[in-house]
User: Fold these one by one.
Assistant:
Number 1:
Amino acid sequence: MKATFLTAATAALLMSASSATATVVVFSTPINVPNTFAGVYVNLLTGASGITPAAVPGWDIDLWGNANNLAFFFNGTPASSSGGVAGSTTGPYLDLAPGAVVSAGSTFSAVTASLAAAAFQAPGNHILGFRFFNESTNAINYGYMTTTSEGANGFPHTITGWAFENNGGAITIPSVSGAVPEPATWAMMLMGFGAIGWAMRRRRATTVRVSYST
């Protein structure tokens, strides 16, 4: 499921640090990560996924099983255009908290060893910040992916969704931990903001006339 929100209100709700015209793209269809050497390749721009690079043109990230441990693999083309938010350029990847900002100022790593994904192997919900090359705009975009691990080594593992700011700006992880916003939730909130705006415009349009007798 792909939901693209084009309004400034949505960008503000997602706490994007970019301009008011920013577009935040949200994917919320779960993807199972097989505990295999191939794993699953994902195109973060289109939402396509598959078990081989050839099956997913323009793939950006591969979650796979390295000796039965969850590991990450990023597309290295173009150079220095992909990777996950890490403590250093050699890893390990950070399990981010709500409120964390992913931007050009973040430290990224493309290390593929299973140790680099150790934080994501523990049972529970996890958040991976990332950057990737947007082949539609030829720019680097920044976003975050939410995943769920059910075992000590990271498997079974599920990608629960991801979001990214497609103008190259920063994005802030929402305050709800481990969850990518659901399109229906944002739609209801946008309707609420619309109603508030309509009421404010109506109030501004009201004119009070006072007559004084002489």
Note: The chain has a mean pLDDT of 81.
Number 2:
Amino acid sequence: MQKSGRLADGTFELLKKCGLSISRAKDNLYGRARELPIDILLVRDDDIPSLVDDGVCDIGIVGENVFEEHRLERSETPETAVASMTARLGFARCRLMLAAPKSWASDDVASYAGKRIATSYPALTKAFLSRAGVAASTAEMTGSVEIAPKLKIADAVCDIVSTGATLEAHGLAPTATVFESEAILIKRPGALNAGEEAAFQSLMTRVNGVIASRNAKYVMLNAPRDAVDAIVELLPGAEAPTVLELAGRDDVVAIHAVCVEEVFWSTLEDLKRFGATAILVAPIEKMMA
């Protein structure tokens, strides 16, 4: 996993929610989970795909943009086995975008024809331009891509964009999304041995539980008996809610449901209109199918 940065922060948070506490060495290059037989190597994100490809690590958590750039580069040597994506993790989202000086920036990708584009992702950039039928060259840079037009290194850039403030500060305007990315979990080529597979499956059970619980809510309410069907229809993503009798009441029941979609205030207002009372919406920390 990444040693530091936004991806690392999200990965440590994911592992924490999976119930794993990580003891780290003083040099911060190595860690170990106390609860599962998992050793962690802390490296640059660019190194993660190769380490997993080559079997140095069994799995890795990396940005999809980094993995796809690596996969496209490795496709030039098809005899080399490449790691496979196992799960999308839903954090560290970003976009790789074409951006040009405001003087000629256009939403028409054809405007980049004949231009030189500075980027840290030449394979992704070339693949996008090829699909768009645009002939342009690239200048590979490992950092500070946004200064390339001012230094006359390139006419435009293709870079990771979050708020766009950095591009704005350098007189650039984003014009086209080349690739949308998030953190993913990748697995090395070939089969794991029995012990490795058991640890991997245990980890994935926890990871899937964390992902499933992110937007899930536990909803409890009281409702008129004759409005149960209508109220159940309003609960977002709920499957077979539990309906319970209330002591001393024949006309009202309690409904408990796990909603796997977001519960909006408007949903609560609709429930209220059907006679629901004592509505409680609680977050779910863990889920397991």
Note: The CA atoms of residues 145 and 157 lie 7 Å apart.
